[in-house]
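Quick one, probably user error.
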């Protein structure tokens, strides 16, 4: 992809992320919402697999947030939301595929047993995520907490200790992790569809070139509404098809038009044959009706 597009995406990501971080500092009632949005904008350059741009976006936004909100106001973004967004993509896109490939057992006749590899991938992947969560919670708890927070639960005051805070954060963290994965997967699909790496090929061009138009339409509609669908392979097809389109010559286009014309002529011939057969059937039916009426009249005259 052109470097100018990466720079443009990084600039937009930095502006939107900084805007959300500033809003999370000054609008306390929606601080978590804006902090989550800032994390999403930090990983926007990763939709084009630009790690350097994403890391630079995080650094720029973190420094700006530090000067705007101070160490306390910028700490959630610097320690958790912004940094974890990049770490999560590194775990999902680099570490977990490497672990699965390394632990895969090769069998005879070229077959592979990926059961152990998949199990180790998710085990170590989520173990690293939980370890990072605990490190971030320790820093946020002991570095920023000056008093022990108190939570009111059904009228009872409960002192929120670090153990309760740590254990209660795990299910919320897992939900947040799942949400970020789904958001990134669909954001990557949308960005690659609107801003292809090269050329102007769209998803429709790739899907409808499969020879089965009806099946392609159904598959495309299913993918459009399926948030769990992995669009990475489809985006690779989109980007890879541009080279094929560039190699099409004018003669190929003319030959294709000739084939279409021949197909239309064949369809016209089939339609003509069908019309002739239909007319013959109608004529036979009318003759039968005429003969039947004549026989009925003859029978009546005979009876008279």
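Nope, works fine. Designed sequence:
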């Amino acid at each position: 992809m052109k470097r100018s597009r990466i720079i443009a995406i990084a600039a937009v990501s930095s502006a939107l992320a900084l805007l959300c971080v500033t809003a999370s500092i000054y609008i306390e009632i929606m601080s978590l919402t804006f902090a989550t949005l800032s994390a999403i904008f930090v990983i926007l350059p990763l939709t084009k697999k630009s790690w350097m741009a994403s890391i630079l976006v995080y650094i720029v936004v973190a420094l700006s947030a530090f000067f705007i909100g101070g160490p306390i106001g910028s700490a959630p973004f610097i320690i958790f939301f912004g940094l974890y967004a990049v770490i999560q993509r590194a775990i999902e896109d680099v570490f977990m595929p490497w672990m699965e490939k390394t632990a895969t057992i090769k069998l005879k006749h070229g077959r592979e047993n990926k059961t152990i590899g998949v199990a180790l991938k998710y085990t170590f992947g989520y173990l690293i995520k939980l370890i990072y969560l605990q490190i971030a919670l320790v820093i946020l708890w002991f570095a920023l907490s000056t008093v022990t927070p108190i939570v009111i639960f059904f009228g009872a005051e409960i002192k929120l200790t670090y153990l309760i805070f740590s254990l209660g954060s795990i299910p919320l963290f897992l939900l947040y992790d799942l949400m970020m994965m789904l958001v990134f997967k669909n954001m990557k699909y949308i960005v690659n569809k609107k801003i292809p790496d090269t050329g102007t090929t769209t998803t429709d061009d790739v899907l409808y070139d499969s020879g089965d138009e009806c099946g392609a339409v159904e598959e495309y509609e299913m993918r459009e509404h399926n948030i769990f669908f992995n669009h990475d392979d489809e985006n690779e097809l989109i980007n890879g098809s541009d080279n094929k389109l560039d190699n099409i010559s004018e003669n190929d286009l003319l030959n294709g038009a000739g084939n279409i014309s021949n197909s239309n002529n064949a369809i016209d011939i089939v339609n003509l044959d069908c019309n002739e057969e239909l007319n013959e059937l109608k004529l036979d039916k009318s003759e039968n009706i005429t003969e039947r009426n004549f026989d009925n009249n003859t029978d009546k005259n005979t009876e008279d």
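Strands lie at 105-106, 112-113, 150-153, 156-159.
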